[in-house]
């Protein structure tokens, strides 16, 4: 698997590139169930497989795509006999969902075909091979991201869609728990037990289903979200470490620093210095 990942920048907020990569899958290779925090377009270069969202199952093949929306559970698997090879592009931004919607791509039908696939394939492959850490390439990737979305054709969907009739309550509860974390992460007194109490659910049960859906415990998700938000503060504000710690729910800046270094590999101070150099 070949992948790169680029940090969020204050220069790009409406629509910005996050990651890209390529993988030639083994038979029955799968990913999920999992929930992403940003958008992912998968473009199938060869082979076939299927993607499951919370409501539908889509059988997809060469020349088609599927979009993973943030905060929604997805699962996808390569075919046993003819496993797919795909390229993915991750992105986010304030207008990301609106732009996809303008192309007919939404959470109910996140699939379609790539326009003029034979001609577009080479350009897509060149795009995934670009070095994103060079400033000029980053600018190009920003522009090419719009170009990539313009290639998404929702009108030529595969008709083999199998709706799931019963709503999966595990997904609903997981989304509700994530919403509560996002609403309360700044509160230093916010505890995992508060989530189950507000949802009127047994804490052990909620912890179990949350891990099944996301692959993380509630505690891990809360920590990860706090660190994600702290990175944004460090990148885009002049707050010192103590102020950032308070902004993301830590009473003790030393505790925050320890957790940050364990997750990111450097202290908040070191991280802030690296972002100021870009």
Automatic annotation (TrEMBL):
Domain HTH araC/xylS-type, first and last residues per copy: 175-274
Signal peptide stretch: none
Alphabetic keyword roster: DNA-binding, Transcription, Transcription regulation
Matching SMART domains: HTH_ARAC
Gene3D superfamilies: Homeodomain-like (1.10.10.60), Regulatory protein AraC (2.60.120.280)
Alphabetical list of SUPFAM superfamilies matching this protein: Homeodomain-like, Regulatory protein AraC
GO molecular function: DNA-binding transcription factor activity; sequence-specific DNA binding
InterPro entries: AraC-bd, Homeodomain-like_sf, HTH-like, HTH_AraC, HTH_AraC-typ_CS, Tscrpt_reg_AraC-type_HTH
A Pfam family the protein falls into: AraC_binding
Name recorded for this polypeptide: AraC-type DNA-binding protein
Species per Swiss-Prot/TrEMBL record: Desemzia incerta
């Amino acid at each position: 698997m070949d992948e790169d990942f680029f940090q969020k920048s204050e220069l790009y907020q409406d629509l910005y590139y996050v990651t890209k990569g390529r993988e030639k899958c083994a038979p029955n290779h799968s990913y999920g169930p999992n929930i992403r925090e940003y958008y992912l377009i998968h473009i199938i270069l060869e082979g076939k497989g299927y993607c499951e969202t919370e409501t539908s199952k889509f059988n997809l093949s060469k020349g088609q795509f599927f979009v993973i929306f943030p905060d929604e559970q997805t699962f996808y698997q390569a075919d046993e006999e003819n496993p797919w090879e795909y390229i993915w592009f991750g992105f986010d931004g304030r207008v990301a969902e609106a732009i996809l919607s303008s192309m007919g791509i939404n959470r109910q039908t996140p699939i379609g075909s790539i326009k003029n696939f034979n001609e577009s394939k080479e350009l897509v492959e060149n795009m995934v091979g670009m070095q994103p850490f060079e400033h000029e390439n980053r600018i190009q990737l920003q522009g090419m991201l719009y170009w990539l979305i313009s290639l998404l054709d929702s009108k030529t969907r595969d008709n083999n869609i199998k709706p799931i009739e019963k709503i999966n309550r595990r997904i609903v509860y997981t989304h509700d728990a994530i919403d509560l974390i996002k609403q309360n992460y700044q509160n230093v007194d916010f505890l995992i037990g508060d989530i189950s109490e507000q949802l009127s659910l047994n804490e052990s049960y909620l912890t179990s289903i949350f891990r099944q859906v996301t692959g993380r415990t509630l505690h891990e998700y809360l920590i990860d979200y706090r660190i994600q938000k702290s990175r944004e503060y460090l990148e885009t504000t002049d707050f010192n470490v103590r102020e950032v710690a308070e902004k993301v729910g830590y009473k003790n800046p030393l505790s925050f620093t320890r957790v940050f270094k364990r997750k990111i590999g450097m202290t908040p101070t070191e991280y802030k210095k690296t972002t100021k150099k870009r």
